[in-house]
Amino acid sequence: MNNSQTIADKAQNQKDLLKLNQYEDWAKRAQEVVFKMHRGNLQDLLPDSFIFEIPRMNASGDFYYVQVLPKNRILVVVGDAPGYGIMGAFLHLVVDRLVTECLHQEEIQEPSAVLKYLNTQINHNLNEIVPLEDKAQIKLSVCVVDEMERQITFAGAKQRMTYIQNGTVKEARGSMYAVGTTMLEDKEIPTYTFNLEEDISQIYLSTDGFQDQFGGEEGKRFMRKRLLDLFKKIHSKSQEEQKTQLEKAFNDWKGKESQVDDVLVLGFKID
To answer: Per-domain residue ranges for the chain?
Structure first.
């Protein structure tokens, strides 16, 4: 290969990289319009709350959805789409649209019904047209807060809800299958209902980016147990201080290691 060809190839690679960065920036801008709406909803509907998020790239595959339901109930969704960057952003926007669609159907209001609807739509309308290795398998937590009845109902697809009760960290585990899998079609999705009067002081919905981060003195994963211990340590602090403590713990652990995934923790209390 002569020098002129090498220079031309390098120039083309640079153009391709710039174009890719531009596409990712557009994806981030599209996401930000949606995120801004849901952040506003969270602040209005559950003001004693926080969102801690660090995308691995500009755009993110981790996302959240907050909306009011009939009878003044509140829907909170936290999701983790495969990949990150443009691919993650695309799947986030698809799921956001599908959640909005399913809420227009009166019979779909409970967390498990939302997950079933999303699973059917993604399997039939998205996964049928993509190659097998690129199937969209999305981890989701769906939580409905009923302040009038003083209850929280949770269902998850390969995700959990963490809560603090009487100072003890507890978890409600979702289905072992993600949304976008045929296995979820025929399986009953576990649903949990909690009475808010039973000394539940904090709720956390999170993706696995925090616990999967490598770091520390030995370059190991943060791990789920360490994250639960961190939740126990910080839960009595203000929401803003909890967010600050999570950010410090994550950055201290990561150190000079590269970030391996998108990170998202959404926390809230209900008076």
So the answer is: 3-268
